[in-house]
Every structure is written in C-alpha cells, then in structure tokens.
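Ticket closed. Logging final result for Class I SAM-dependent methyltransferase.
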Amino acid sequence: MSTEREADELIAEAVAAPVDGWGFDWLAGRATEERPPWGYARLVADRMARADTALDVDTGGGEVLAEVPRPPKLLAATEGWPPNVEVARHTLRRVGATVVAVDPDAPLPFRDACFDLVVSRHPVRTDWAQTARVLRPGGRFLSQQIGPGTMRELSEAMLGPLPPPSQRHPEQAVAAAEAAGLRVVDLRRATLRAVFSDVGAVVWFLRKVIWTVPDFTVDRYRHQLHALHRHITTTGPFQAHATRFLIEATRPS
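Final structure:
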C-alpha cells in the first residue's frame, strides 16, 4: 500500500468518527497526553462535597461533572456548543444536574449570588465579571484552563511558524480575576507531553479541539497531513506539548 493511500485511509476513518461530547476515548491506543499533577476531577469532587449550590461552566458532554460522588443539592451546568447539550443532559442525569444551553458570549442566565461554587474545565473563555456576579460572598471558583501556546508543535505542523502566544497566560487570568473583585488563592502551571501515533489521531484531535488550527479541514491541509504521516512512519510518533494552569479564586465576604 502506498504511503499516501495509507494516510488517506487513516484520515477517512478519523473523519467518519463522531466528535460529540468532550471525551477522548476514540484516541485510546492512538494518542496519549500527560495529565496535570493536581488532579482536577479530585479537586472538583472535594469542592462539590462542601457546596449546597454549584455551577459547571462549559461542561462539554458533562464527563467530569458526572463523576462527582457527592453532588450538591442544586447543580447546574452550561454548554454553548449545541451538539454537546443533549450529550450533557443524558450524561448528567445521574448527578441530577440541570443543563442550560447558552450563547457563549451572553451573560450567565442566573441571578446574582446564587452559587457557592463555580467550576470550569477548559473554558472557551472565562467571563470573570459574570463569574463574580453569580458567586455568593465567600463562594469559590475553580478552573483548569488551557495555557499559552498549547499544542504549538501541532499547530505549526499545519500552519508553519507562528508568533509567540499573546493569549491565555496565567498572569492575565489572575489580573482579570482580581479586576472582577475576586481573590486568587491558588495558581499552578504544567507542561504536558502529547504523543500521536498515527495521522488519523491527529485529524480526529483537530476536528475536536478546533482552536488548534481554527480553519482546519482535511482538504485544506491534506498536504501537511501526508507530510505528518511520513514523519510518523519513518521517524516515530509525533510529539507536542499541552500547557495547562489551575486557578482558584474566592469572592470575598
């Protein structure tokens, strides 16, 4: 089988695979990414067990929230990508969460000071003023966020050399949180190795994590995908690095 034909078969398989929700099970055996050392799901479970009312912003398919062993009495989640909304509603039945479809750029559809806890894993963006508004005095915000230049090697394999990242720096998040009246009580950073064993895994990832290459389509980037396939078959798995940071803040009493 020719190298290009092999690449096209792997690409076609990845294009046919669903990317709904925010799980990455399809990549099992094909790609890996190191986990941050702080254990976000464990931290969320701990904070949820001590809250009466909680909100998960940008819940995706509800995968993290569904694993909370002791959910609060009132639990809500928001999601701005329509295909994920029904996935999240199905997933989150077990914890009794209400899933609200939202416009990502609109204010949070909740009254002032109604949550003890707000969490968010990999939010598209954090509206710090809205977060502060819906937190009760003494309430807490916990978020694992995508850091600057995440998966830069993969972005540059498709797009060519890029300028230094100007967005998603932890220091920017701290400044924005404090400007909204929150007090940052924890900030941690991590750089995590990601390994892609075949070009199909790359295609599926780029379809799902759309900000890596914002205009990605297979037809537009087939030449680069073929080059990446040749690299993997001759040199070994393609490696990139994800950056993450954990931020925790409170609304002063």
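The chain has a mean pLDDT of 96. No further action required.
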